[in-house]
Design a protein that fits this description.
Blueprint (H helix, E strand, L loop, with lengths): L13 H10 L4 H8 L3 H9 L8 H10 L2 H5 L9 E7 L2 E9 L4 E6 L17 H10 L9 H7 L7 H8 L8 E6 L1
Antiparallel strand pairs: 1-2, 1-4, 2-3
Length: about 180
C-alpha cells in the first residue's frame, strides 16, 4: 500500500505558503481563518527560514491543485434580507437566501448527499418549495391543540417562519435545525 507521505512532500517553504495564499487572493487573516490557524501562525510561516511540516504541506498541495475548493466551501455574500442555514448538528448543509417581497430563493448546498440538503436534489427551489420546506420543519398546521402550542411559543397565529424563529426548526429525534440571520 502507498502511503500519503510518499506522495506529498513532508514540508513546504515560506514562499510556497505565501504564493498559495496570494493565488487565492486572501489576506493573512482570511487564510488563517480558512485553514484553522491564527494570523500570527501564518505571519510566522511566511517569514520563517525553517520548512513548515505537519499537515500544512498536504493542505498547500490541495490548494495548489484545486484552488476552486475555497469557493466551494466559502459562504457567499448575503444577497437577500433573510438568510437561513439548514444545519445537521454543527455542519452547514444548505445556505438559503430569501427575499419575501419578490418571493425569490437562492441556495448553496454544502453537502453532496441529498439527504443532508434542505431541498434534496432540487438545486433551484421556488418560493413555494421554500414555504413547504419551512412548514416541514414545524408541527403540522392541523395539529390537535395547535392553539396551545402557539400560546406556549407566544405566537398569535400559525406562521412557519415565526415558529422556526422560536424552535430553530428542531424536531423530535432529529439532528437537523435552522439558524436564521436577518
Amino acid at each position: 500500500m502507498v502511503y500519503l507521505d510518499s506522495i506529498v512532500r513532508k514540508s513546504v517553504s515560506k514562499d510556497e505558503i505565501k504564493a498559495v495564499r496570494q493565488k487565492l487572493k486572501m489576506t493573512q487573516k482570511e487564510f488563517a481563518k480558512w485553514i484553522g490557524v491564527s494570523k500570527p501562525t501564518v505571519e510566522r510561516w511566511e517569514v520563517s527560514e525553517k520548512e513548515i511540516a505537519g499537515m500544512t504541506p498536504l493542505l498547500v498541495e490541495i490548494l495548489q491543485r484545486h484552488p476552486e475548493i475555497v469557493e466551494e466551501f466559502s459562504i457567499p455574500e448575503k444577497i437577500y434580507p433573510i438568510r437561513l442555514f439548514y444545519m445537521y448538528k454543527d455542519m452547514v448543509c444548505t445556505l438559503i437566501d430569501v427575499d419575501e417581497l419578490i418571493q425569490d430563493v437562492k441556495i448553496k448546498n454544502y453537502q453532496r448527499n441529498i439527504m443532508y440538503r434542505a431541498f434534496g436534489a432540487n438545486e433551484h427551489p421556488s418560493y413555494k418549495d421554500y414555504q413547504e420546506f419551512l412548514e416541514s420543519r414545524c408541527f403540522p398546521r392541523e395539529r390537535d391543540n395547535m392553539k396551545l402550542a402557539l400560546r406556549e411559543l407566544d405566537l398569535p397565529f400559525y406562521d412557519p417562519f415565526l415558529i422556526i424563529e422560536k424552535t430553530q426548526g428542531r424536531m423530535y429525534e432529529d439532528d437537523f435545525w435552522i439558524r436564521i440571520d436577518r
